[in-house]
Amino acid sequence: MKFVQAKNYSDMSRKAANIISAQVILKNDSVIGLATGSTPIGVYTQLIDWHKKGDLSFAKAISVNLDEYCGLPVSHPESYRSFMDNNFFDHIDIERNNTYLPDGMAIDFSKECKDYDQLIDDLGGIDLQLLGVGNNGHIGFNEPSEEFYIDTHSVELTQSTIASNARFFEDDISKVPKTALTLGIRYIMQAKKIVLIANGEVKMNVIERAFSGKITPMLPISILQLHSNVTIVYSKV
Ligand code: F6R
Questions:
Q1: C-alpha angle with apex 111: 110 to 114, nearest 5 degrees?
Q2: Which of 26, 158, 205, 223 sits at a 20 to 30 Å CA gap from 164?
Q3: How many independent structural domains does the chain possess?
Q4: Distance 67 CA to ligand 1 centre (A)
Q5: Tell me: the pLDDT tens digits for 36-82?
Q6: How much of the chain exceeds pLDDT 90, in percent?
């Protein structure tokens, strides 16, 4: 496990983007696991910048996102598909057919989850997984719980996640979807390399507890202690 301290949010974003960029330069058909939320926006902005300057191409890369809200049409501005299109995919040369997210509008969630796991299997697993972390220690939408969920699954979001994500829904908790589909622990832990980004006091506290305390599904991120190639790029501010 490597801890890389950054000076601030933009330094953290640039450092994490450097790792992703190196991955794609060294293996242009990499399968990259991606996250949404506010933390990775700076990483995506940096990668877009390098792409626009002609230094980085995603033409052969494949992306697999961690999660998607249930019941939000893809066209909804806060669906994770919209988020990824607006903040990343629309500005780089990745083939749209090579960008995957779980389908939160699927009729049969259980089949959708199985298909998503099969897809990742067929792709040969994830080369590099970018992760943020929730204030409650969730990764993807693997919420604190009595047990770790191995496979892609549908999940009831906790009140703290709903409250935290209300900022994306006009601060109206009633507009935040209550369920989501998320990659389980298996494919996150099987990623060859993990880059975790976190900034600010609340997240520093989560990181501290996750990597110095015991491994527990009540703090899902703590499972990363068992991964052999995790880089935590963090900024206290
Ligand atoms: C979303 C995801 C979540 C976020 C987490 C932190 O795809 O993976 O685990 O990383 O909720 O979100 P922000 O960055 O908004 O604090």
A1: 90
A2: 223
A3: 1
A4: 10
A5: 999 999 999 999 999 999 999 999 999 999 999 999 999 999 999 99
A6: 100
For ligand 1, what atom is nearest to the CA of residue 67? 7
67 assigned to active site: yes
The answer to whether 138 is a known catalytic residue is yes
Cα–Cα distance measured from residue 27 to residue 31, given in angstroms and rounded to the nearest whole number: 9
Can you tell me which atom of ligand 1 is nearest the CA of 203? 16
Q: Which residue has a Cα nearest atom 12 of ligand 1?
A: 37
**DSSP character at residue 168:** G
Max alpha carbon distance in the chain (Å)?
A: 47
**CATH code assigned at 19:** 3.40.50.1360
Structural domain harbouring 195: 2-235
pTM of the model: 0.98
Which residue CA neighbors atom 9 of ligand 1 most closely?
140
- CA-nearest of 214, 178, 183 to 69 is 178
What residues does ligand 1 touch, defined as CB less than 6 Å away?
A: 35-39, 66-67, 132-134, 138-140
